[in-house]
Amino acid sequence: MSITEDQARKVAHLARIAVDDAALPALARELSGILDFMEQLNEVDVKGVEPMTGVTPMRLKRREDVVTAGGNPEQVLSNAPDAREGFFAVPKVVE
């Protein structure tokens, strides 16, 4: 699959990456190479292959799913940099 310079510009804009017009041809070639490699991966037969969580086979540790009262809120909030009225206080990020 071939990516055009306009498509590379749009991808850079969506990713919030500043790319000079002079660098767009190289970016388009690089993105095209990535998509070509992904197409090669689609040709691999993976039927019967189990999904992996890591490169070494291990079983994930699990715990009982037990409903509790939530512990001690004062103890939970003791490490918070800012806690008000029994809750974590965080800076406002949305206007």
Structure explained in plain terms:
- This protein has 95 residues and is mainly alpha-helical.
- The chain has three helices and two strands, in the order αααββ.
- The chain has a two-stranded antiparallel sheet.
- A hairpin with a 2-residue loop joins β1 and β2 (87-88).
- The chain starts with a helix and ends in a 7-residue tail after the last strand.
- The model has no long low-confidence stretch (mean pLDDT 89).
Please outline what is shown here.
The chain has 95 residues and is mainly alpha-helical. It is built from three helices and two strands. The chain is flat.
List its traits.
95 residues, mainly alpha, two-stranded antiparallel sheet, 3 helices, 2 strands, 4% strand, flat
Class by SSE composition: mainly alpha
Count up the helices: 3
How many β-strand runs?
A: 2
Helicity, in percent?
25-40%
Largest sheet: 2 strands, antiparallel
Rg value:
24 Å
- Mean pLDDT across all amino acids: 89
Widest β-sheet, arrangement of strands: 1-2
Sum up the overall morphology in one term: flat
Order of SSEs, N→C? Answer: HHHEE
Span of the ends, CA to CA:
41 Å
Strand content: under 5%
Low-confidence segments, given as residue ranges, are none
Give the helix/strand layout.
Blueprint: H1 5-14, H2 24-42, H3 73-77, E1 83-84, E2 87-88
Antiparallel strand pairs: 1-2
Helix pairs in contact: 1-2
Subunit structure: Heterotrimer of A, B and C subunits.
Catalytic activity: L-glutamyl-tRNA(Gln) + L-glutamine + ATP + H2O = L-glutaminyl-tRNA(Gln) + L-glutamate + ADP + phosphate + H(+); L-aspartyl-tRNA(Asn) + L-glutamine + ATP + H2O = L-asparaginyl-tRNA(Asn) + L-glutamate + ADP + phosphate + 2 H(+)
Enzyme class: ligase
